[in-house]
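User: I'll paste a sequence; please echo it back and then give the predicted structure.

Assistant: Echoing your sequence first, then the prediction.
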Amino acid sequence: MAHIIEHHSSDLGVESATASSLGEWRLVAGNRFVPLQIAAEGRFEGSIRWRYIDETCITQIVASPHRVLRTDSLISPSDPKHYKLSLQLDGSGIVAQDGRETVLRPGDIALYDTSRPYTLEFTSDVRCLVMAFPQSVFDVPSSLIRRITAIRLPGDEGIGALISPFMRHLGENLDSLSGIAGVRILRSVLDLLTALVYAQLSEEEDHWGESRRAEMRVFKLYIDAHLNDPDLSAGTIARTHFISVRYLQYLFREEGLTVSSYIRSRRLQHCEIDLSDPAQTSLSVSEIAQRWGFPDASHFSKIFKAHFGQAPREFRSARLSA
């Protein structure tokens, strides 16, 4: 381990490391999220910079040709369930998962799932950006994600032409992604990625059908616009859109959700952001809760603690102190 590497952490939360051999690279990059096999031929060099925002990690990698394998034998039920977005910056890469294989050129994006086997192969020097994020924070059903893993999402057309340069810029400015601004930028990235995924799915044969996807987008936009209404429910949404509650619940169930759990999750996400925001300190916890549809302070405190592991005041104090 003679060379291992320069490894530091800055005040802004960016960490970096370099490796001058494959063995060092395996220590640096091989098990950062889940166990991986890494192979290479000849001399190997690599460098890596990364930053965590909440539970999401954005990583910029520069490395010699190599191969990465996530095999069945390395997968454990206890491993964290993440999706990874890979943006090719320089060189080319091959991504394989779920019986598909695609070649990425600079600007292209691919998604893959760490809970199933996958392979990455770089036959020349490579520079890429990898974002690893919990599956729970991504508003796309896993059944749909499985249909587009290891598919090239082009970075030079459609929504890809918007998200690709944005992600590239993000990787070049990791130091700027601090505090509540970093959290909000991350949420924007996930929203853009959601749009990119649905745009890709719309080009594929979809068992949902375009009309159902369009309906769900309408319902979710309606929910987001009325989160401050404590009476928001499946019944009010169904009446407003002249459909039955049963049909509305069926559509959400197809995404593995319930209407009430989706409303509660969206409200809690907004409360989390406001409680973490220094600009919102003039508002009390109960005022923030009421703003997002929680009129009962004790009920809000109970469900917030169940979701985040801390009471709202403790959570706010910890976030603002950090």
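The first helix runs from residue 22 to 29. The mean pLDDT is 88.
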